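ok so i was messing around last nite and threw this chain in just to see what happens. nothing serious, just curious
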Amino acid sequence: MRLWAFFLVVLPISSAAQIIKPLPIQRPQSACSTYPGMTPQTAIAVCGTTSFYQNSVNSCTGPNVTPSPCAPDIITSDNSFWYKFHCYSPGTLGLGFLIKPGSNSDDFDWTLFDVTGHTNLDDVFTMGNMQVSVNISGILGNTGCTPTGTGNVNCAGSAYPPFNQLATVRAGHDYMLMVTNWSNSGLGYSLVFTGGDAVITDNILPTINSVNSPPCVANQLQVAFSKDILCSTVTASGSEFSITPGNPVITGVTSQCSGGNYSITGLTINLQNPLASGNYTLVVNPGSDGNTFKDACGDSIVTGFQIPFTETASGPVNISAVNYSGCAPTVLNIALTRPVWCSSVTPSGSEFSILPGNPVIASVQSACTTGAQYTDTLHIMLQNPLPPGNYQLLVNNGTDGDTFIDTCNNTMPPGTSTSFVITQSTVAPVIQTIGFDQCQPDRLVLNFDKPVACTSLTSTGSEFSISPGVWPVNSISSSCVAGTFTMQVTLLLQNALPAGNFIVHINTGSDGNTL
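result:
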């Protein structure tokens, strides 16, 4: 676009005026982020069954869309409004829409993006594969996607038509349409979805999906809507809501509407007092504005809509479970009721002790060791396996002077005690796999399904025999030097095994037991 404007200065007017866009009278000065609906983050939710009228377009600057399929012509987001919608059915023809300027002397551009799965909506400015259809034609007046349109990309200049073919959209995908007043006239336009058979309207009335208390705040409720709700139907006082039983006082609502959004998918109800623990129902009725909440199609949440929710006590963080695996675990997995700050966890596990016997805790591991700031799971590493029995896990102040502090800055009370049981296993260990190295055929590596007590092994390997044939075991090697249990034993044979099929037997050894 700007390249054609440069040639207008140096070429005869008679040869250039027919093929270029007119230069805007003035270029925008303010950033588009200051205007609601003029950034991807504040995009306006639209519906396929209604027409949208934008009375004026503020002059503002925004990033260019790169890469441009029309390079060196650029795709600008100056003076642009953004619209968002969801595709429920692609149809057989595709998506059609018409942009009709308020003045036939205005030049409007547009770009359609597929934003599915993108949490950072600014990706539209840098990821070319998100572009579905583009039109920056220099022809004035109406533009859009129509059944008689041509191609998916039409660039600057009057040589390119103002209408693209119907856009191919996919069911389940989310889209954004950027409409740009390149003329910078300040005048508006109308937007209507017509000409195609893609469905961007679900015809389902909006509802509330969930009601929850936000973490660490007892006098607020977070409400999640089933679809975009128009900010024009939300009252700041929260007059649409009531709560039973008790009719707790609602002092207002907080939402992104106050930041200039046209629509929201959720809001926060502010209460005069914290809710006591119990079961409640949130009720929706017409507010002081005479309606409940409307979606982009103008459909309302039904009067009297109700959704139950439960308020739970927010007391101090506690231990919710002690889990382990095996018959004599060396690791205890500790689940917490809420995340705690890693800064309150000592790597040595000095906050913990176990009764009876006070078995030695070697360390505590968690996500904190990978750089996390908080965690809701701790792993107590024991120096020795914990035999079957009934135990108490105690929490007291560690070497850092505290117990555990949750992300609401609540401290677990010193002396917190949790009971757990290590059950007696009635299943003996078995050989799970046997490894055989062809370069060392006089060695067999036995892997067990659970730790084996080193005291039950003899150094000569008298517990093991091999059939068929006679294949004496001279000795064994294991990790028993470093611990009292092992998961692996290597048999050192007197002779190398030839090719064939063999069986390893576990017998009573010279110590009077098996394993």
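not much to say yet. Confidence is low (pLDDT under 50) at residues 1-25.
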